[in-house]
Model the fold of this input.
Amino acid sequence: MRALIIVNPVAGEQRPLRIAEETAEYLRGADWHVDIWPTERGGHATELAQQRGERDLLVVIGGDGTLRETVAGLAGDETPVGFVPIGKANVMARELGIPRSPHAAIRLLTTGRPTPIDVGTVGDRIFLSMVGVGYDGWVTAGVDAFRARPWGQWLYRHGGSTLLYVLAGIPALLRIRPTRVALEADGVALDGRYPSVIISNAATYAIGWEMTPGAEVHDGQLDHLANRRAAPWFVAWTTLASMLKMRLPALVAEYGRAKSYRVSAAEPFRWQVDGDSMPPATELEIGLLAGHVRLIVPLTAD
Ligand SMILES: [Mg+2]
Done:
């Protein structure tokens, strides 16, 4: 049986290539033929996945971005995909119960169960966790601006990424006057005009928080949180609720589920997808590819 390891050699703080070698050694011990293909630039994992040829197992070693890029190169086929998470936030590993210790994640490749997982779409991109419109679009844009500077780059590389989000988040909280957006769920327009909307494939948000508690990655539906309030106090409340994995009261926010969404506004709004800030837009079409990728997860997971 033939396995391919796609590894991002600059992911996280660990040594990705050494972990790739350990993974290959482990699989060879179980009679696999293994190739290791390191990525060389952003977007390269998609190309490597497209060029993989006949494989019985695909292993991704990297962060959530490497996993997303790899999945973008799979056309909904049956190849099981294993994931050894060595990123900073590891949102999808938290969501799927994949161990964040490389040794345990490597063992899971042969002991876990390939499970169909939904993948979100926004325009011609895919996402695994969420699309955020409004406040978190401003925050990710702020983090990108910091990372463009040497000190921001240094801080990000040396484990200070959470601090960068706080540094970007507080001024955004005090300064922004967000655009209010209209939201359609499965073609039905919701009543409100919302300063902030999160559309999630997964419940997990950032470092183990939950903006949409109860969202599941294999129910064939997306979940939304639409905030009615823009004042800093409500944004802080939303953040606190997500840290505690609690829902906000109806006075503050609306929740729901749908297979497709349309977000629109007369003025351009800020948005992010899976934590990457995007150029301002006036309209987003968001959809779902149900069970698009077979990810290897622990047997105990649902
Ligand atoms: Mg779902």
Q: What stands out?
A: Residues 125-291 form a domain with the Tumour Suppressor Smad4 fold (CATH 2.60.200.40). Residues 118, 201, 215-217, 219, 221-223 surround magnesium ion (CB under 6 Å).
